[in-house]
Every structure is written in structure tokens, then in C-alpha cells.
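Appendix C reproduces, verbatim, an entry submitted by the partner laboratory led by Prof. M.T., so that reviewers can inspect both the input and the predicted structure.
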Amino acid sequence: MRKETQKVLLLSVLGLVSLNLTAQQKVKKDSIKEIDEVVVTALGIKRQDKSLGYVAEKVNSEVFENIQNNNWVQGLEGRVSGLKVQTAGAGPLGSARITLRGEKSFSLDNNYALIVVDGVPLSNSTTGTGTAAYGAGTGGDLPIDLGNGLNSINPDDIESVTVLKGASAAALYGSRAANGALMITTKSGKSKNGRLRVSFNSSLSFDSVLKWPDYQYEYGQGTLAKNSAGEFFYSYGASADGVSTGGTSSAFGPKFNGQYYFQYDPTILGQSKERQLWRPYRDNVKGFWETGVTSSNNVSLESSNDRSSFRASLTYLDNKWMMPNTGFDRFNAAFSFDHKLTDKFKISTKFNYANTKSDNLPATGYNNQSISYFMIFQNPNVDLAWYRPVWKPGQEEIDQIHPFSSFIDNPYLIAYHMLNGVEKKMITGNITATYDFNKNFSMMLRSGIEILNEERTTKRPYSSANYLKGFYREQYIKNNEFNNDVLFTYKKDFGKFHLNANAGGSIRYNEYVMNDYRAEGLKVAGDYSLNNAISLITKVPKPSDQQTNSVYGLLSANYDNLVFLDVTGRNDWSSTLPVQYRSFFYPSVSTSFILSDIFKLSSPSFNYWKLRASWAKVGVAGLPYQLDKYYTPSDFVGSVLTPGTYPNPLLKPEDNTNIEAGMDFSALKNRLGYNITFYQNDTENQIITVPTLWESGYSNRIINAGKVRNRGIEMSLNGLPFKSQNFSWSIAANWSMNRNKILTLPPEFAGESFYTISTVAGVLYYNAVVGGSLGDLYGFKLVRNPNGEVVYNPSTGLPERPDRVEKVGNAFPKWRAGLQNDFKIKNWQISFSFDGQYGGVAYSQTHHKMSEQGKLQHTLMGRDNPSGTIVGQGVILNPDGTYSPNTKAVGLAAYYGDYYRRANVETNTFDTSFIKLRDARIAYSFSKDVIAPLKLTELTLAVFGKNLWMWTKFPMFDPEVAALNDSTITPGAEIGQLPTARTVGFQVNLKF
């Protein structure tokens, strides 16, 4: 049946991007005759997708508008093949680590994708607190996720995000795009005939904890102590029943069986006068957490005509997170304006302002002052309510209530008095002028800015475990970046040959400075000011400036829209490199062939076949101030610290070489699309820091060395199985696999088997081995016999300890996949998305400590033994070299404490495979005849959810785990992770 259509057909083609095509001709139902998708590539140049020799996947605004996230990046999870979003599980801001096609650098911080907003690259800098995730007993502070530049981008203002995955796709952006780039295009005015359109988007969502560890509430606090009658007992302080057993953090005490003991009495802050019922408090960890609430309201105005367009947007988001007294609010304002001054001259501007403010963000990590630490040490027989008064009577602001250990801070003291405040103001924007000299030749001038001003405060009260006399800190961070570029474009047709040439240059300047003031101890408790400092430490601000000058060019040619060829070249001059190596050039070449048109293969059942390939080489400059010796201001006024890292005055740029090839198909009237990509990326001559002999006066030095290879496959499938007037079903799936291999190590390690890139908690080693992979985790394992049985010490009954570390696994999965479904039933829309990964492991500090202390379900094994002992399953080594079953009994506390000791990485490392129902949404759009009397053009009501369900064998909160070390998100380690939120919300969208 043929009919006239005048509506916009929204189809997903080739698994790359969404297609917006107005069909204004007579076509068969569900058929499309042309596919001319336009995507935004490097430098903001718009290209037809079919002309590209590399993958450019596009995610449209609906993804970010429909499923509201505190951080828009989380909306990309599972939707783009080869893209990994990693957070540290450290609170509501959810700073993200975005990688494309695996890890390429020995340095974790050098693997991030570049973020580009409206053609202007962002520095996306993060300043940490200067502390590691594992900090027990250090007496210092701990990491806090205070957000990065990504947090400031408002999802309601995003028009689209185009993901350029390889160096070929991002070659024109220079060294910072060696790991790929995310091209964000913000919205601009789109209304018709100059009519003013007003849009309102409001959402309200509720957060609860997605997953809890398997706590045990059958046995209480204690260490298997027995009274004079030979019975297990408990006593808070010495009593008639026996010695005190209330000072331990372990839960190897008596079983809850209706007995009575002398316990803690909160009314007298000491031992109860009478014996109290021995009972568990099953809500004494979960009850601390609240239902989080997030509200977001956005209003925008836009208008456009044939010469001008504008859009203005205001958004306010208020978040009350699941941990009491934590959360943030964010205000965003966006403005865009385009105007044709003449038929040849056009100016446009876009500016975005974000103000993120919080009185308190949660701290993370394994440290006395983190709520994670308290949850680990909380015992089953301890009522959470005993901590609520916070302060001892008459000792307000002086001495906290922490009745079981002075090393475990009161959870309400942590929530309401250990405050981590921040106010971050960020402005991004650009002004662009375009002049067309004639129909073939044009020039663009663009100036972009990123201005960040951040103020932080840290408050620590009296009697906190690490600051007995309190602590106060103020930090003032300024990070400004200026990008100015010019681009000339020449277009010319020579019969069937089409030529497009671009040439230009840019200057990028970045300045960063931080002022840091610390009050070590407070004269008056509760007075948080620098004037109240017992000892005031003022650090002279340390600047960090850098500049890169560049020239670049792009030559694009095609023959009759059948064969396309791109050649690019760029030369950078970086201030971070020495004069002789400061200038470096890198090229790329890519091509695509529309085979379906070349061989005239198009038919109703087979529509499109494209072959593409590309090669690129990118130079990567280092960080500033690595060439010379610079002194660091110390904590003592007027003094400096000698640098511990020896600089390299002959530093060279890294080399990143990328090759990729693939094919795109569509069939069945373009209702089925598929693409596949194969790639290889080699990173060599890396700028890395290696240890050196202490006799040199330095602990490390900077060198060029090492080579890493990534190979992978990416596939995407899009389908429209059903489509009728009242029902349609669209489906999208993606799968990606990356294999990483270390080809060479620095020459200093030629005689050794590995190079330790990083360590976590003093027991987990990220070792680089030739033939191994980045992300390989090493640590002590169990000693086993040739049959794989655990070998025990016949004298102690505890596992034998190995004399060397071994590989335990890799932090990164073997493959990742995502699946999205979208159903439209008349005015209803139902959508849901799954994603997951297979393989990968992570070490869990929480599992170690809670197992050591008998807090988890699996530690119930052996508890019924009246002797309080257990025999480890395994063997012992006999003098003659044979093995026999282990029969040596050992106390439960000693067994679990040793089997799951912190250094035993094997027993505390787990598979991080998972499947998640990442998001779901049910929406109803009212028909126009219903809303017309209300002067509305659109009204949609929806209910949505995020992280609604999860399958995993990982025993802690979430398998998507990483440690926050200072500002570095370190995958493969769970060090005091905070719970992940399950979200359910409501949304209303209206336009008039």
C-alpha cells in the first residue's frame, strides 16, 4: 500500500547513529531510499557518515533526557560498543573514567577519552585530596569524590554525543584525543517561523541501596572467650561473668540464643547494671542509610527563523543522597545564539554556566573517618541508636560517643560533623564567526573558554580518630583553558570528483593553580576558621601552565559518492617537551567504499554495504614541568622540598598508531542494520615514571619506554522487527572485545620479570610483564599441591604462606555487551536496557576485613563446633614429599583471620561478571486533540528506573568497582566502596 508521508522517520541505521530523514515522496511502507546521516567529527566538522573511514557512533538527546542521571555520562553505559564508564562508587557526583578500546598507557590517568563541547576541548581536570583509598592507621585524611568537569554538563542541554573511538577519528584534535573523543553538541533554537517554543522537563526520583553484602546476624561480638564454666560468654567490661570481651571488632562471640550478658548501656555510657538480652540488631547497618531524593527542573525557550536562532535554558537539580546529610545541588544556565549578518557572514555563540554546591559529600576509602570503615566494624549485637546522641553529655563538640573503640568514629559524627564542602563554578563556551568568500571558499574563526573556580572546605571535629584536636582545610582551585582556532575550507566539484580541503591552526593555553590552607588542630572546638588554628600551614601556590600551538589540515575526496578518501596531518609544538623534540607531526588516512552502489547490489532485501579502513599515528606530549628540577613548597613557611623524581630534559613524545577496518550493512528496507570493526592500537615510547636507586638522591625518574598493543572487535546490531500505525518495536545490541598485550618494558627491567605500575593497600600489585596485559593484578595466593588442594602448615593448622606474588587475574573484562529495546504502542512507549560484562576480577578490602572479623554469612562454617575450632580443607606436605589430609584444628578466629588476611589476595578477589537492568521507562504521550485546549504541543508523563536489577557473583556492593586514590580511579580494587543506588522516578515533559 502506497501513501503520501510527511512525517519524520526515526530509524537507527547500521548501529552507528540515529537517522533523521524527512520522507516527502511516495514510498513503500517502512522503506527508505537514501541514507545521508550527518555526524559531528573532529574540529566540529560535519560529515556524512557514509564518507567516514572509521566508526562514529552517535547517541541522541532522548537518552539523556529520558533517564535522568546525576552525571550524564552514565547514560552512555551499555549503549556504545568499546566504551567503558568507570566510577569509584564514591557518592552522588559519580566522577567517571571514560575509556575507549581498552587501556593504552602504563599510567592510569593517561587513558581517558577527550571531552569536546561544541567543538572546544575541555581539560576535564580533577584535583584530589592528596590521599590514597587505603589509609587505615595513617592518621591522615581520605579521598572524596568532588566531581570533575563532566559533572557540570547538564544532560537537558545535550543535543547529541558522537563517540570517535580511535586515533583516526580524532587525529585532528591532537595528542589529547589519542584515546578517542566524545563530541558533545549542545542544543540550539529549532522552532519554526520565528515562533517561541517553551519546554519544561521535571523529574523526581528516589534512591535505595541496590545490593548489600551477606551480613550474618547469628553470632555477636567476641573472640571465643569462655567463662569459668567453659561456656562461651560476652561481657562489656570486666564483670562477674569474666574478663571484658567488648573491645574487639570481631563477631566470633556467643550465638544469639536468648541468653543474658552484661552489655553496653547507652543511658549510662557504660556497662549495664543488670544482664541484658543477647540479641542481634539486624538493621544496625542498613538502617543508617536513607531513601535518597533527587529533583530536577529544566525550562528552556527557543526560537528560530531563516536568519537567526536562539535558545536559553535554566536547570536546577537538588540531590539528597542515601547517606544522611550528604548530597549536592546544581544550577545550570545555557545560552546559544546564531545570526546571519549577511548571506556570507554568520556568527554564533554558545555559553554554559554551572554552579555545583554541597555542604557535605561522602568520603570513601578504608579509613577511620569513612562510613565504609564504620560499616565494616559494626558488630551484630550493637544497636545503631546507641550512636545517635553523637556527643557525651556535657562534652558537646569535645568528645564523641564511640563505646567500642576509639579507632572507630561515630557514624553520625561522620555524617553531620566531618563535612566535606565544595562550591564549583564553571563556564564553558565559544564564539564562532564564519565567512563565505564564495560558494567554494570559507573561513571560520573560533574562540573557546573553560573557566573553573572551585572552593573546598574540610572539617574534622575534636576526638575524631585521626584529629584529636580537630582539623580545618580550605582549598582554592583555578583551572582556566583557552582555545583559539582558525579553519579555512575549500570545496570544489570536478565532474564526478568532489574535493573538500580544510586547513587551520590553533593555540591552546591552560593555567592551573591551587591555594591550600590547613589548620592542624583547633584552639576552640567547633570553630572552623583559619584564625582558630593551633598550627596554620599555608602552602605557596604551585602553578601548572602549558601551551600547545598547532597547524593541521584535512583533505577529503570522493568519486561520485562511491569511494571516499580522507588524509589528515597535524603538527604540534608543546611547551611540555624540550626544544629539540617540541615539534612533532602525525598523519592519518582513511577510506570508505560504498560497495552496494559500486556493484549495484541494492535491492528491497539488501540495501547498503560499506567497507571502511583507516590508519593514524598520533603524538602524545607529557605533563608540564617534567623537564627540569622544580621544588615543591613544604608545610613549613619559607621552605621547599627537594623533588623526589628526577626530570628528563630529553623527553620525547609518545607514539600512538591505530589501524582499523570494518563493514556496515543494512537490509530489509533498512530495518536491519549491522556493523563490525576490527582494530589494532600500538602505544610506544611512553612517558613513564620508574623507580631509581636511592643513592642518586631521587626515588623515581621519568623516561621514554615501553610498548603496549590493543586489539579488538566491535559489533553493533539494530533492528526494527515490527512497525505499524499503532505498534512498533526497535532493538539495538552491541558487543565488544579488547585484548591488551605488553610488548616491551623499560630497559631497566630487562633483567627482571615485571615492572610494578601501581600498588593498592600495600598488597595488590599492578605488575606489567612482557606478554601480559595492563590491568594484571598480582598478590599472594594460597599454596597448593599439584592437584590444586590448599596446603596447610601441620604445626599451626593455617595455610602455608607463599614466598612470592603471583598473577591473580585482570581488572578488565574479556568482553562487554549491551541490549536496548523500545516499544511504541499507540501513545505508550516502553523501553528498557540491559548491559553486562564477562570476566575481570577485583580485590575487595571490605571482604577481607569482614571475613577476618566473622561478619559475613560464609564465616558461619564451623561455628557449631562446641570447641570453637575448625579444620581447614586441604592437605599437609609430608617429609617424604607426599601429601595427606589436613587434620589440625585451629580456632575459628585464627582460621578466618589468616585464610582471608589482607595479604591473601586470592581469597579476597572475585569475578566481576555481571548483568544489569540498567534502565527502564514507561511513558504516555497525550494526543494533540487532548492537549490542544491547554495550548500545549506536547505532554508526556513517565516513570523510569535505573539499576533496577543485577546478577553477579561479586560479594560486595557492586562489581563495577574501583578505588579512588587521590584523583585517580583505579579499577580492580574495592577499598571502602559506598553502596550503589537503585533509582525509581517520575517525569513530566511539556512543550508549548
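The chain has seven helices and 59 strands. Additional entries are available on request from the coordinating office.
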